[in-house]
Amino acid sequence: MHRLFTALQLKKLLIQKALGDSYIEAITPLQEKSIDLPNSLDTLKQICTNCHLCELSKSRQRVVFGKGNPNSNIVFIGEAPGATEDSLGEPFVGRAGELLTKMIERVLERPRSSVYISNIVKCRPPNNRTPTPKEALSCRPYILKELEILQPKLIVALGATAFRYLTNDNTPISKARGHFFAYNGSKVLPTYHPSYLLRNPSAKREAYNDMLKIKKYLESV
Ligand code: URA
Description:
221 residues, Uracil-DNA Glycosylase, subunit E, 48% helix
């Protein structure tokens, strides 16, 4: 019954959207919480796969939903899929993903498959541009629901976009990184995005220290 209600509500929203209704712009964090999404990752993935709530749905090849161990105590969240992710339908499988995998396997000393990885925005922005606030806010209910289902002990926000849209905090990533922020009974730790590290290898030292902090925290909870 609940699923039918959710499906009908979503259908109504999609029709409104098709008719040109731009209600997403008016969304506030309070209203966002009331959006009725399912408590099952599989059903949430299905809804995302059929999402047309923003312009990115027109240019995407694949919707990139989160992937990994749903029982993981740690979740990594990036910005949005790039070209490789868009064509394969999986998060962090390009060059940035290779670096993220190394960070997880070499510093946290656990396999990538033992963690869960997702993005704030599930569809690729053209030319890998930063998602607009409208795009990020229309997609945000999905990541918030993913996190509500997963209930990780720690969320690692990879880069400024993930940090900003998870916490509503506009502190520059260079200042916020390496610090713990409260998040619904859990914690968010921002660090540099792997793509930034590929462009700025000198920042790898700080990212390494953040990963050590993450490792120590997970050992303590
Ligand atoms: N960058 C991201 O933020 N996410 C991906 O999935 C890939 C690259």
